[in-house]
Amino acid sequence: RGYAPYMKRLLDRGELALARWRCGLPSTTPAAQAGIMYGENFDIPAFRWYEKDSGTSVVCKVPKLARAVQERVSAGREGILKGGSSYANMMDGDARLSLFTLSALGRQRFFESVRGVGFFLLFLLSPLRVARVVLLSLWEYLVEMAKRAIALFVPGRRYRRPFDVLSPFLGILINVVLREIQTFGVIVDIYRGMPAIYVNYYSYDEAAHHFGPTSVEAFKALRGIDKQIKQIDRIRTRYRRREYDLHILSDHGMTPSVPFQQLYGCTLGQYIARQVGEGVFTDERWGKEGRETIEAQFLMEELKGLEGRLSKRGGALVRLMGRFLEERVGPEEEMPWDLSRRGDIVVRSSGSMAHIYFNVSPSPLDLSEIAVLYPSLLRQLIEHPGIGLVVGREGGETVIVGKRGTITLDEEGAEIQGENPLASLPEPELAAEQLRRLASFPHSGDLILFGAWHGDGKLICFEDQVASHGGLGGPQDYPFIMYPRRLNLDLEKVTNAKDLYPHFAAYLDGTRRPAH
């Protein structure tokens, strides 16, 4: 549709090849980046989950929890960014420089270092780039204020602070300033000859969640990303202190969705609470992945590092900006260690997948044990029109239950009773194996629920999103990758993000070299 003209040009010239690949389950960024960067994503069951044995709620936008996940999956493994740079990622891949990277947040501040201050000054001394940021910021501000004015006359569309002339600046900081700093950082690193550079642009993902994967808003975000790629690639091809191969990829797809609550008038946790009766406390957590919150955290952390290196007046201005961000972002979604909030039943939703935990035992429960505790719950979940699959364990086996049939899986094979509940998926055998692996994770739920299809290619999700990922079904399972055509990658063998690790690790050990 013309929203990514530079990427199309790379394909038309034959420089890059385009293919889809399978990211595996869960189809979410933490699992995908862990797999790509370290070759391991075991026991990352979703974007958010619960650990019964310690009473810990894990959500991957909390920096110290993202860091703990990275430390676990990276143990004894070498990251693909060793000695290189990471920009706006969740994992740092053992990068020497990490800017706006969640797992490194708090561990190192870029602008506390001499190099960071030099980078900032170099950015300010680039008049064309500064002018670009100013003009884009002004345009973004005018568009946002126009949207707020129009929303006053549109039923159902309301802003929390419709007349707050300062609120749009948060979006400008994130959608314009942060993006331009990322791109400038990559360009500087190309000049410096850093061995590997990984930059992540989130704007399409955020727009697609809110407006849909094929919405005008999402495509406009894609156009902005395409322009950043164009800037980077022009420097890559013109300045050859070091040769680089260019890879462009998404770490998950996106499936059009309709919220469970919109269809049935209650959240999944509220529905479960009704089925189990009074006296049982249900602890439910869900919500958007919070790219805005994550990126605001990046900015607040870096402002702390910058404050001490400025004059008194400059430091005061930085503190004022920090307070502005804190007021508009609000507190973290949840604190990780709060045993007083442990519920009898814990619900953690990520897109069209939800993990359900029963706190009567710190160990995973079998389906038969759940049936004894809550006799009608399993039947009510299986029969609910908004729930497509119920996955659980029984005697070391994985059980996948649909409306008209059941699959029982172990390491030796599968036994199907009735209709195959995965038959509607394009690769049912692969889906079964991925579900068996997911159920084997120590911190997956006692039950794992997946949303049902709701006509017109839409999947029911357990968050307030019109497009989702993290679960199973539709385009969310099939991201894309653009790679140098000469490499002729065999992506049919890639069934999980961790299968891409050997490809990128080959650059690290020198067995694969960029083209000259």
Keywords:
516 residues, alpha+beta, eight-stranded mixed sheet, three-stranded antiparallel sheet
Walk me through the structure:
- The protein is built from 16 helices and 19 strands.
- It is an alpha+beta fold and 516 residues long.
- The chain has a domain of 167 residues.
- The strands form 5 sheets. Strands 9-10-11-16-12-13-14-15 form an 8-stranded mixed beta sheet, sandwiched between helices.
- Strand 10 and strand 11 form a beta hairpin.
- Helix 5 runs antiparallel to helix 6, helix 6 runs parallel beside helix 8 and helix 7 packs antiparallel against helix 8.
- The protein is globular.
- The protein starts with a helix and ends in an 8-residue tail after the last helix.
Brief summary:
Helix content is 40%, strand content 16%. It is of the alpha+beta class and 516 residues long.
Indicate the topology:
Elements: H1 5-12, E1 16-20, H2 29-38, E2 48-51, E3 56-59, H3 63-74, E4 85-87, E5 97-99, H4 114-124, H5 127-151, H6 168-192, E6 197-199, H7 203-211, H8 216-238, E7 248-249, E8 255-259, H9 260-264, H10 268-276, E9 282-285, H11 291-307, H12 312-329, E10 345-350, E11 353-358, H13 367-373, H14 377-383, E12 387-394, E13 397-401, E14 405-410, E15 413-418, H15 428-440, E16 447-451, E17 459-461, E18 467-468, E19 480-484, H16 501-508
Parallel strand pairs: 4-5, 4-6, 8-17, 9-10
Antiparallel strand pairs: 1-19, 2-3, 7-19, 8-18, 10-11, 11-16, 12-13, 12-16, 13-14, 14-15
